[in-house]
Amino acid sequence: MKIIVLILISHLLLIQAQDAEDIKGYMYVFAQEWPGSICKFQKCTKTYMGNYDNARWNNHGLWPNTMLATSCGFISNCRDETYDENKLTVATKTLIDVTWNGMYSDTFTFRKHEWEKHGTCHPDNLTQNGYMSKVGNLNNQYNYYKILASAGIYPDNNRELTDTEFRAPFTKTLGISTAMTYTCQKDSNTGKFYIAELRTCFTQAMKPRTCDCSKPVSAFVNCGKTFYYPTFQLSTEEQIQLEEIPDLSIGFLE
């Protein structure tokens, strides 16, 4: 009986130690952008879309955030290591040419920024190839397009969405309703909100965790009561005028 009790106590202590490690470790914010919305407000081109297949969201980045006290603070520019695509394998280049493109700006410059600002801060001290392939593979593992499609939510210029229905498939996938947050862009002419970026949050062990930090998840959402998930068109004659919305994503910087 004593042996069983000791085993149970040891097991509980191990769980508490793992939880404590998660709390003191890092939180990763994995961000993807929806081209259908981004390209309504920016002039996206074939040159900057790479081999994007219109069956996923485009990577923005994977951002390590410290978890000190109850606030998450981004860390940046941790190692002085210039981005060099010659250090990437053919497989990694092929992967990120589908999952991680500039859309409306130079793709190399975009990836360079993400590596030098955030990739150099990865606590596992990943190589450039390791970091870029990790982010590319996360896009396949957490394909936001497929997650939404599993709930019957597809790009539609006329369908209004609410937070409840938009969040539900991610809750099912991640197991935690607050493990995702998102932001919108607003058409200043019509007042309509368009889902622009969606972020999922993970512990250092890459387990889904709440994104709330020092604020509730709802505080990071700026999409009004309803919003749109529009179809993607590579180019338009005239971009919609964007209304600036205050950035509420403190701690989730790009």
TrEMBL record:
Signal peptide: 1-17
Record key words, sorted: Signal
Keyword Signal assigned: yes
One Gene Ontology MF term: RNA binding
A Pfam family: Ribonuclease_T2
Example GO biological process: RNA catabolic process
Protein name, per record: Uncharacterized protein
Organism: Paramecium primaurelia
Taxonomic lineage from the root: Eukaryota, Sar, Alveolata, Ciliophora, Intramacronucleata
